[in-house]
Design goal:
With 152 residues, this protein is mostly helical. It has a domain of 100 residues. It has a two-stranded antiparallel sheet with strand order 1-2. The termini are far apart.
């Protein structure tokens, strides 16, 4: 019977029996054919080994956690630097676009009077051509028979 009072899996070794499972690593005093003092000594040694193993696992876990923390901090630092770099690049691109937009607006502003001059010249050229061909007797700025000015 095991500790709960039900039949469980038991193994026999030598003259004593041990429960199977995680507690099978520990010997119960007086069950392995040794004197109780010797069995306690072996059990104490096993407990020390187990505590040492647990401490080692804890240390390894702490080292792993520390490594993860430093890696995380490094990645976050690189990410922050990348954000700053991208922000600077975006700001520089915006300034460049503003300058180019100002140049384009300036060019368009100077092009508008030039275009008006070209249109006026074409109108004058059309008026001259009409006057030379005899199709129209009125010149630019001249009044027609009805008293209205003709521009074309």
């Amino acid at each position: 019977m095991n500790r709960s009072g039900t039949a469980g899996s038991q193994t026999r070794t030598g003259t004593g029996s041990h429960d199977s499972g995680p507690d099978s690593r520990f010997l119960r005093p007086g069950t392995d054919g040794l004197d109780p003092e010797s069995a306690r000594g072996r059990t104490a040694a096993q407990l020390r080994d187990l505590v040492s193993s647990i401490n080692l696992e804890k240390l390894q876990s702490q080292e792993l956690l520390s490594s993860f923390k430093s890696d995380f901090i490094e990645i976050m630092t690189r990410g922050d630097k990348l954000i700053v770099d991208l922000s600077s690049e975006i700001t520089a691109n915006r300034l460049m676009l503003q300058k180019q937009s100002a140049k384009i607006n300036s060019s368009l502003a100077s092009l508008s009077p030039q275009l008006a001059e070209v249109v006026a010249h074409l109108k004058r050229a059309g008026d001259v051509k009409k006057g030379e061909g005899g199709k129209s007797s009125s010149r630019k700025g001249e009044s027609s028979s009805d008293g209205k000015r003709r521009w074309f």
